[in-house]
Design goal:
With about 650 residues, the protein is mainly alpha-helical. The chain has helices at about 30-35, 40-55, 70-80, 95-105, 110-125, 130-140, 145, 155-160, 160-175, 190-205, 215-230, 230-250, 255-265, 265-270, 275-280, 285-300, 315-325, 340-350, 355-370, 375-385, 390-395, 400-405, 405-420, 435-450, 460-470, 475-490, 495-505, 510-515, 520-525, 525-540, 555-570, 580-595, 595-615, 620-630, 630-635. Helix 16 (about 285-300) crosses helix 17.
Length: about 650
């Protein structure tokens, strides 16, 4: 029936990861939970589902005396877990949860079929695509055996448990590493760690564990696909080695077929196109619902409502939905006016300004929060919507544009290097340098520094000058000479003093960046980056049922502040930290709530995942891990 129970392994769609060299073996691409529309969609489905249940005279009696608000919450939690939206579920197993209903009220398999029918009818009423309905049925169907005590052993158990999986992994990787086409994907990989990760994943995929914390399959293989050319043929080779391994171990063909049924679908997940933001939000029904709530908020806002006087709001809602569908990747075309053109009259005649834009953006975020959209998706929406402010109101020209663009910068670089090479104190630093390439690199850097490009592929200033400092004695007085030549160059070109001052304001701070190694705090992006990471990190912590209880009764705003202060200190952004020692700060949690090292590992995993979601480079993530890991001893050993 799936109404009050926890989920056994049989209800979880499993996958395997034979192809990932040096990566975590992850869950499938976008989970069914995400593709259905997330929490908002599941909550809506549960409401309609129970309306149908309670209107069914054969099923309603099973719920007599039940707190239906609590029941709906439990059902939503179960479906969130079963559909891949959570890695843990704290309820009973399905048999235990339904045992009393079976023994005392006569619950049987025909009732299960009625319930399943109502679930399918609910999804169709919500216009869920048939392929997704089929996926739901594939997950829900096997729970019948679990509920009525007919549950089979997991594939993990049938294969022989942990010892068998570990033995298979050893032989499997021997075959992989002996394969000349596959071995290069593992260059530089710690194979002992890789074997452990693979065994952990297969244990999860085959039903031996209910949790696994790796990345999605698409994300974990992305770098291998883009940089090393991993493709579907390599997947087939890996899968072949897995089958050969199982045969070598004498596994029956029947069980091998079960393994293949688990492994096969992961190919699509690994090589699948990342779902669009439109799809991740829940598609057209979700966007339409959001637009309705959004405009209700707009029209209730006394500062914004006057801009819509005389507007056909039904048509306006349709136009907004069309635009958001396009902006979020749900359509490749948009037939409306440009943002500047469509807002021009409001700006000129009604005084629309950037503060109004910020109010509107706030209502959009509030709408998504009301709909229980995940924070990471809200951040993606903000990243799409934010730049439209500039498109609507125009932008101040960059210093690059004010100086005259690419031609002007290139002209300045030529004169600048003529001066440098004529300076006897500076010219020796360029001995043996390809000056044509050097000019190009300098032009690229100045284009970036002056706002003409959003990206710069060169080294950090410290890294690119380190050798000159250590081997040739480059120092701050040389920097001042170079800066003087730059100012003289600009004056020779007739650049105004006002613009020269803007250039100096940009160039001046680079002295410290060149001669002082940046801290990890600075390399991560400073305070805004740490604060953003802490917010996402605690969202993950509070969604983890094993960790959230440690924060019961805690002022989370204060906790976030304390965590940000500690990380700022630990990463080198502050020389002082006013908090307790780590052992003292965690002592009560250890003694009274059972905090242990496995909880630390979960927390550390959430921190790494947070940094990966924020696009932090692996090298910096490794630096963070090197700072964080020693704190385990400090927390549990009484040191520090």
């Amino acid at each position: 029936m799936g109404c009050t129970a926890s989920s056994p392994a049989a209800t979880c769609p499993a996958s395997a990861c034979p192809a990932a060299a040096g990566s975590k073996c992850p869950k499938s691409g976008a989970s069914l939970f995400e593709r259905l529309g997330g929490s908002a969609a599941v909550d809506a489905a549960v409401d309609i589902f129970y309306q149908k249940i309670m209107a069914d005279s054969q099923l309603a009696p099973f719920f007599e005396g039940i707190d239906m608000d609590r029941q709906r919450k439990k059902q939503a939690n179960f479906l969130t877990f079963a559909f891949g939206g959570s890695s843990t579920y704290g309820g009973k197993n399905l048999f235990a949860a339904h045992k009393k209903l079976i023994e005392e009220k006569g619950l049987n398999e025909s009732h299960f079929d009625l319930v399943a029918g109502h679930l399918v009818a609910t999804l169709r009423q919500l216009k869920v695509a048939e392929d997704l309905v089929s996926e739901v049925v594939a997950i829900v169907g096997p729970t019948k055996n679990a509920i009525f005590g007919k549950e089979e052993k997991t594939l993990f158990e049938k294969l022989g448990g942990a010892a068998a999986v570990e033995a298979a992994v050893d032989i499997f990787y021997q075959k992989i590493m002996a394969d000349k086409e596959l071995a290069p994907f593992f260059d530089g990989i710690d194979m002992k760690r890789q074997r452990k990760k693979q065994a952990d994943f297969l244990t999860f995929a085959f039903g031996g564990s209910k949790t696994y914390s790796g990345k999605t399959l698409a994300a974990s293989h992305k770098k291998l696909i883009e940089e090393q050319g991993l493709n579907e043929r390599h997947f087939d080779l890996v899968a072949g080695h897995l089958v050969a391994t199982l045969r070598q171990l004498g596994v029956s063909e029947e069980l091998i077929n079960e393994v293949v049924a688990v492994v096969g679908p992961t190919k699509a997940a690994i090589f699948a196109k990342e779902p669009t933001l439109f799809e991740k939000l829940g598609g057209q029904p979700a966007v339409d619902a959001a637009v309705d709530i959004f405009y209700n908020k707009i029209m209730a806002d006394k500062e914004l409502a006057p801009f819509f006087d005389g507007i056909d709001m039904k048509r306006q809602r349709k136009k907004q939905a069309d635009f958001l569908t396009f902006a979020f990747g749900g359509s490749k075309t948009y037939s409306g006016k440009t943002l500047a053109a469509s807002h021009k009259k409001l700006i000129e005649e009604k005084g629309l300004n950037e503060r109004h834009f910020d109010l509107v953006a706030g209502h959009l975020v509030s709408t998504l929060q009301d709909l229980k959209v995940a924070e990471n998706l809200i951040n993606e929406v903000v990243a799409v919507v934010g730049p439209t402010k500039e498109a609507i109101f125009g932008k101040e020209p960059t210093l690059f544009e004010k100086l005259g663009g690419a031609a002007a910068v290139e002209g300045a670089v030529d004169i600048f290097y003529q001066r440098i090479m004529a300076d006897k104190q500076l010219a020796p630093f360029f001995e043996g340098i390809d000056m044509k390439r050097q000019r190009k690199k300098q032009g690229d850097f100045l284009t970036y520094a002056f706002g003409g490009s959003k990206t710069y592929a060169g080294n950090t200033l410290y890294a690119s000058h380190k050798k000159l400092i250590e081997e040739k004695g480059l120092n701050e007085s040389h920097f001042d000479l170079v800066a003087g030549h730059l100012v003289a160059t600009l004056r020779q070109l007739g650049v105004s003093e006002e613009l020269i001052n803007e250039v100096v304001a940009i160039v001046g701070p680079t002295k410290e960046a060149i001669f002082k190694e940046p801290t990890l705090f600075e390399k991560l992006g400073g305070q805004p980056a740490v604060d953003a990471a802490v917010d996402i990190f605690y969202n993950k912590i509070m969604a983890d049922k094993q960790l959230a209880p440690f924060f019961e009764g805690i002022d989370m705003q204060r906790q976030r502040k304390k965590q940000a202060d500690f990380m700022t200190f630990a990463f080198g952004g502050s020389k002082t930290y006013g908090g307790k020692a780590l052992y003292a700060a965690h002592k009560k949690l250890i003694e009274e709530k059972g905090l242990n090292e496995s909880h630390f590992d979960l927390v550390a995993g959430h921190l790494v995942t947070t940094l990966q979601e924020l696009g932090v480079a692996e090298a910096l993530i490794n630096d963070v891990v090197a700072v964080v890991l020693p704190t385990k001893d400090a927390i549990f050993g009484g040191r520090c």
